[in-house]
Amino acid sequence: MKAKSIATVLPVPDLGEAVGFWSAALGVEPTFVDGERWAQFDLEGRRLALAGSDRASEQAGVMVKVEDVEAAAAELAGHGVELGPVEEGPHELRRSGVAPGGFSLVIYAPRPG
Known about the structure:
The chain is of the alpha+beta class. The chain has two helices and eight strands. It is globular. The chain has one domain (5-110): Roll (2,3-Dihydroxybiphenyl 1,2-Dioxygenase, domain 1).
C-alpha cells in the first residue's frame, strides 16, 4: 500500500465557526466546503480537514487516500489494525478504525465512476 495523500482531520462541533477560525489562522480560504459536513484547506502540499456532521470519530486523526480501500485494509490488518466496514460517502469509499496510539484512522478512495 502506498498512500496517495495524507491529511490531519479535526472533528468540529460548528463547521462554520471552525472554517472562519482556520481561514484567519492560515491566511487562506478553504479549498472545499460541503455544507455542514466537511471542509478542507490545502496549503503548500498539505491538507487540514474539518469534519462537521460527517465524521468517523470524535477524536482527531489521520485520513489516508489510497488506490484500493480493500487492499489497504488487508495490509493494515496484517499490522493489527482493524477497520470497520466500507462506508459510502458522497465523494468516496472509506473504512475507519483506530491506529496505534488511539488516533482515528480513515482510509479512503474516490468513488468509482
